[in-house]
Amino acid sequence: MKKYSVLVVGVGGQGIMTIGNVLKKVGQKKGWIVVGTETRGASQREGSVDSSVRYVIFDPGEELNERMSVISPLVPLAGADILMAMETNEALRGARFVSPKTCVLVNLYEILPAQAVSENWKGATFDEVVQIMKTFSPDVKTIKANEISKSEFGDFSMSNVIMLGAALGTGKMPVEINEVKEVLEDEMQRSATDTLKALEIGMIEVTKKV
Amino acid sequence: MPITKEILMDKPGEKVFMLGAEAIARGALEAGVGMVTTYPGTPASEVGDTISEIAKGIPGLHFQYSVNEAVALENAIGGAWSGVRSLCAMKHVGMNIAADPFFTLCYIGVQPGAFVLVNGGDPSCISSTNEQDNRYYALHAHTICLEPSNSQESKDFTLKAFELSEKFDLPVILNAGPRTLHGIGEVTLGKLTPPKAEGLFKKAPGKLVSATLVAVGNKARLMSRIQKVEKASGEMSELNRIIPGKAKTGIITSGAAFNYTMEASDTLSIDDFPVLKLGMVYPINPELIERFAQGLEKILVVEELEGFIEAEVKRILFEKKILREMHGKNVFPAVSELNTDIVIRGMCKATGMKEPVDYAGIQAKYSKAVAKALQRNPGMCPGCPHRATAYALKKAAQQFIEAERKGQVVFGGDIGCYATLALPPYSMQDWVVSMGAGFNIAAGMSFKVKDTMVGLIGDSTFLHSGIPGLISAVYNGANVLVVIMDNKWVGMTGGQPTPATGVSSLRDEVPPAVSLRDIAKACGVKYVRSFDPYNIRHAMEVITEALEEKGVRVVISERECVLPAKRRMEPIREAEREKGKYSYYAIDSDRCTNCEECYRRFACPAVVRKAENGKEFAYIEDARCTLCGACKEVCRSGMAITKTTVNPHVSPD
Questions:
Q1: How far is Cα B386 from Cα B377, in angstroms, rounded to an integer?
Q2: A56-65, A140-149, B583-592: the lowest-pLDDT one
Q3: Residue in chain A lying closest to B382 (CA)
Q4: Rounded distance, CA A69 to CA A53, Å?
Q5: By C-alpha distance, which of A34, A9, A35 is closest to A102?
Q6: DSSP characters for B266-334?
Q7: Domain architecture of chain B: domains with CATH
Q8: Distance between CA A41 and CA B45 in Å, rounded?
């Protein structure tokens, strides 16, 4: 038996909840114990949003020990196995959940808070964000999910699926692409063809960088 | 997104994902609940909202959004006393409003029905004005309090709560914080039970008329009922259970803290501490504690917020003359919610173990990283009518003070989305305390200071607890301007209807919307005016005149919350766009002087600063714009912002 924690962070409207829901359902289909929680209420107000998915993974027939299998929906400090950051400022805010063993996946895309625009605040550059994240874990991968979504599908709406594909492409996730595809087909509003294409693009893109 | 299908699924044994709040709703349906009442409040809103989605489809189930928690609780007592299983949901501070009927309900009892009170706690004040620990209501009023740890228990404990309530003639508090109510986990469904459609009320003045001798008798009967529960709870293993272990240190815990404790123990490689998990945190069976303490040298109590269980356990052990080394709030903080890391640190302090993670190191490194991240404050939505009201009010107040050349305008703030007006650039909530306290504190202060007093209050908050204060202010001759920000919905908690909305979740016919103007007049207010906040210039005129008046004045800002308005308008706009017809606001960069009024002081997130060819100007992001037009009113050049409507069906001239 082992535990695996996913933390997805970003800004309201980026499809964070969808990634979380898909991963929870994949875990449920596999028969694992799945818990999670999310920021509720901020999504329509352009606030920071996060979704945690935590698996307790065990083999069929393995005896479950309550002392090991009870987990909280919150990811502990330095306790994420993978951090998926849909936005660069949110990646920095998620850094406290990163340990040297965490796989960090950053979407190089910034959403400026309204106040930052009006007050002319300047955030960290993408390079700085990556450098800072590397001080937490050597395993930092980047992807331009929004850029790819725009060029392949005309808008940003597939960015989250591309990101999910990239997470699978890291090879660090305990789930397989086919298992994700099955659940995704029910969850997404776009046509299945587009969704599966986005997932595969994400997978390929992230492996290119290794 | 409501999970209506799963909530109504009549497949016992099926496993589905549910929020804790949804699982409570499901548990109530499995228990055959016949009446559900609520006033929305985070994190308990989803309990009522889930029932609201499905209530029409269940014959015999009555659901309602009541105007406040006391009314909701009293309405549900009506259900219980007619023999119906009734549930009432509210947030922790709402319980203060409902406390008056709640206490006497405990004295009297709930039979022949049953009564479950869902109490949404908020440690860390994620969405509240304080983090009070409502388990003390159970202690204080001598009734039962259960604390589930996850979604499955949320459902199971709801069923158990109805059973206990019915059996022991007591209302049962189901206490849970956001990690339980908003946590997601798998729930194994049970069988749905149809509600009792018709109740039966039998008069019982010797019990129900709780005054003088009846009340004293009721108190004595209450004490005997809670003692029976205390005795019986020693055998309720589905609520209270011991995970055995051989170590000399044991842990007592409950609710969300149980999850943190188990995870912390695993992280610290502790596999032999006996753990007593309390599902019923009040009353606590003394023999259970005695049994658990046997053979132990040290006891740790891990619980969120106050040392409630700790004090009870200490009292029990004292009475049993059992002396143990105890750790509770000396190592686990009473402030904010717990998490696995906090519990690990507390356990290390209590046991002398070494911390497995370099917390100080992580924190130091994290502080440096997060300093580079741009702050993302919660704010009002693009097109929010509250922003326009606040802008008009702030401007009018500034001009009023400049003209008067004395004093200041004081803004009494209240509970709702408009509480974010406390943040820059508005900074115009001089206090936020409790529902209705905004203008009531201002009214009181008006007798002692010469400043101009203004109170802000939303429509739902006004109906919830503004009316008595308004009557009192008029009667006592206070000097306050009450600005009612009427957006027709309870915006902050997800857009529930109020009596001023003109819709009902259960009934097909539309009840007439109450008129806030008529209410203000009936309270005795002579000066009642209203305006549409999107028309900022007119709003300023109305507010300026009201500021100059004396006595109690009410001005009502009338404009629907932009979220439901947008949801309704979106399909219509979409259909029009497909026909090539659409409207948009745009800023003429040549006419824009970049005075920053629209995006910096008015601060609509749909308007941004843009730079092109070395010139800075304001720019409207069409995807975020709701076409409210308020920015046009704040434009200093007066001409830069225009609305354009493209209509292929109308010739250009």
A1: 17
A2: A56-65
A3: A45
A4: 14
A5: A9
A6: HHTT-----EEEESEEES--HHHHHHHHTT-SEEEEE-SSS-HHHHHHHHHHHHTT---EEESTTTS-S
A7: 4-233 (3.40.50.970), 241-371 (3.40.50.920), 385-564 (3.40.50.970), 583-644 (3.30.70.20)
A8: 11
Rounded to the nearest angstrom, the gap between the alpha carbon of residue A21 and the centroid of all alpha carbons in its chain is 11
Which residue in the block uniquely carries the two structure tokens 């170590």?
B247
Contact A95 B357 (CB under 8 A): no
Tell me the residues of chain B between 476 and 495 that have a Cβ less than 8 Å away from chain A.
494
- Please tell me if residue B567 touches chain A, with a CB cutoff of 8 Å: no
Burial letters for B384-402: b for 16+ Cβ neighbours within 10 Å, e otherwise?
Answer: bbbbbbbbbbbbbbeebbe
- Reduced to 3 states (helix: H, G, I; strand: E, B; else coil), residue B99 is helix
Place of tokens 């109450």: B514
pLDDT at A41: 52
- H-state helical runs in B331-466: 340-351, 359-370, 385-404, 437-445, 459-465
Test B15 with A113 for CB contact under 8 angstroms: no
By Cβ distance, the residue of A41, A90, A116 closest to B42 is A41
Chain B's closest residue to A122, CA to CA, is B374
Distance CA B623, CA B626 (A): 8
Angle at B138 between CA B466 and CA B111, to 5 degrees: 90
N- to C-terminal Cα separation, chain B: 46
- The model's pLDDT over B52-87, given as tens digits with 9 standing for 90+, comes to 999 989 999 999 999 999 999 999 999 999 999 999
Please, what is the end-to-end C-alpha distance for chain A in angstroms? 30
Measure in Å the smallest separation between the Cα of B259 and chain A Cα atoms: 5
B328 alpha carbon, distance to own chain's centre: 28
A115 touches B at CB < 8 Å = yes
**Around B281, how many Cα atoms within 13 Å sit in the side-chain half-sphere?**
33
Cβ-defined contact of B186 to A11 (cutoff 8 Å): no
β-strand pairing of B172-176 with B114-120: parallel
Answer yes or no: is pLDDT of B511 > 80: no
Chain B residues whose CB is inside 8 A of the A132 CB are 368-369, 372
Q: pLDDT by residue (tens digit) across A153-192?
A: 999 999 999 999 999 999 999 999 999 999 988 776 667 8
Query: Comparing C-alpha atoms, which of B442, B390, B444 is closest to residue B416?
Result: B390
| Contact between B258 and A42 using a beta-carbon 8 Å cutoff | no
Measure CB to CB from residue B365 to each of A76, A116, A135 and give the nearest one.
Answer: A135
Neighbours of A186 (CB within 10 A): 10
Q: Which of B433, B446, B434 is nearest to B472 (CA)?
A: B446
- Look at residues B516, B534, B410 and name the one whose alpha carbon lies nearest to residue B460: B516
User: Which of B260, B378, B603 lies closest to A47 in CB terms?
Assistant: B378
Contact A73 B15 (CB under 8 A): no
Query: What is the predicted pLDDT for the residue at A43?
Result: 47
pLDDT tens, position by position, B372-397: 999 988 788 999 999 999 999 999 99
pTM attached to this predicted model? 0.95
The domain A2-207: what is its CATH number? 3.40.920.10
Rounded Cα–Cα distance for residues A139 and A130 (Å): 10
Q: What letter would DSSP give residue A45?
A: G
- B182 touching A (Cβ < 8 Å): yes
Instruction: Show me where the domains of chain A are located.
Output: 2-207
Residues 504-543 of chain B whose Cβ lies under 8 A from any Cβ of chain A? none
Interface ipTM > 0.90: yes
Residue B564 contacts residue A44 (beta carbons within 8 Å): no
Output the CA angle B84-B189-B89, nearest 5 degrees. 45
CB atoms within 10 A of CB B13: 8
